[in-house]
Amino acid sequence: MTGYGKCVKRNDLIEISAEVKSLNGKTLRTRFSIPRIFNPFLNEINTLVSKYVKRGDVDLYVYYRLSPDVTVPISVNYAEAVKYVKAAKRIGAISGREIQISLKDLLSIPEIFVKEELEVEPFKELLLQTIECALKELDSARKSEGEKLRNYFLERLERIESVLLSLEGQLKGIEGKLFQKLKEKVQKLLKGEELPEDFTKRIELEVALLAEKQDVSEEISRLKGHICRFREVLEVQEPVGKTLDFLCQEMHREINTLGNKIKETDITDPVITIKTEIA
Question: Using an 8 Å Cβ cutoff, are 99 and 88 in contact?
């Protein structure tokens, strides 16, 4: 199922926002775009995502902003500063000109001032709460889409059942239709001459054999069984995409077999309609 969720939470130290989106997929695949400082919590984040999403492609984005009251410690690399000063003096000696290194010059050198790592453990609880909040919103969106799909499938199943009922009615008395059709073909070949009685009986026998070959009661019974099973699966509260896909394949196979058996009867519209609904 597709879905989207977003959540923002804050405390006195930090504000964290999380966005998560999902697309359909056969397996669970996750992609995280989170700040490096939260890498120690990747295992917990993975566990949290798998709790709410079993299948699909999931993208998670996390952003943060520290409170102005939170200061990041900065250390000075004095050894590096001394190297720059000595290098400037050597260049001055070679060029014959004295080079003065000001404090402003030193401040512009990023290697001299290093931000120390933040202590991220105090942020862990809020981080996981924010991600879970976004996942709950995603889960709600996915369930809403699932309910719409369920209603859509039920409408299609009702349509198939209605057409199947009509087809069963058209198949009643099929032997009479086949007999008349075969008789007309023979009369056309005989150019309108009256058929001998024994020949008529032969036609009736052939029609009976043909009707037996075209008996589709088993296909209709299995098709009804698949429809019933489809409805049952729609009520299961877990991923059922693979099962529904299999049932669609089986229903398509049954209607194909049915259509091939009755192709001599010119009853094609119901078969085409059912194929369209399944597809």
Answer: yes
Give the Cα separation of 267 and 258 in Å (integer). 11
Q: Return all residues near 183 (Cβ < 8 A) that are at least 6 apart.
A: 195, 200, 203
What phi and psi, each to the nearest 5 degrees, are found at residue 190? Answer: -85, 5
- For the entire predicted model, the pTM comes to 0.67
Q: Is the pLDDT of residue 116 over 80?
A: no
Strand duo 113-115 + 56-66: pairing: unpaired
Report d(CA 279, CA 248) in Å as an integer: 8
CB atoms within 10 A of CB 220: 18
> From residue 180, how far is each of 172, 233, 263, 267 by CA, in Å?
15, 44, 16, 15
The tokens for 12 are: 């006195």
Length in residues, the chain: 279
